[in-house]
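This protein record is not my work; I was only asked to verify it. The record follows directly below this note.
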Amino acid sequence: GKAAGVPIHRMLGGAYRDRIRMYRGVGGQLPWCVESGLPYDAGQPPDNSIASGSQEAYEEAARIIVEEWGFRCLKAHIGMGDDVEPTTGVDHIAECFSAVRRGAGPDVEVAIDVHNPHPAKARQIISALEPHRPLFIEEPMPVERVDVLAQITHHSETPIAAGERWMGKWVFYDALRQNALSVLQPDLCHAGGITECHKIAILGEACYAKLALHCPLSPLALAASIQIDAWAPNFLVQE
């Protein structure tokens, strides 16, 4: 882009939109900002009056991010590890997601990342979440086995998302060929950069899959991701 003197999205074919919808993650504790000049310490939130991981914490965190920080789309991070126990874990995920919904309000889209639980729990988690209509459910099981992912997601009425650790277009092609995904989440830093993610987005468009680029890594990666977002006809939301 610098060499040609034009933005990357123009080199990809031009901008499809001039505004990019962003989402903010919601965890089990209240969000906070680091004041200018102070060291960043991710483990020391300033307010611990609400128990971390509780429904109250999820609800209040969502309210703050929407009402005070101005985000209009969220993604809840609620997991239960890779064990099949406790059996109450599925209920906890659904209850905490419902709390995020309450805190965010009816006009805010909310997705959820359940962080690769055991495949034996995947269908239960999807079924428990579907009444709450998440924007998408991210990686409802470990995604190394695309064939197993496809078996689990085929009967889901909620869009299923995955791909943040996949490298190259071939595994995305395999997932799309097996109808395993509705939302593609390549990460520019893992998948192969702007050029490869451009190809992945085209594959997704041909299979009616949306694009939601994964990007928690750096401002530079986010700036590059936004160039693809501006171009992609099948763009959904940007992390």
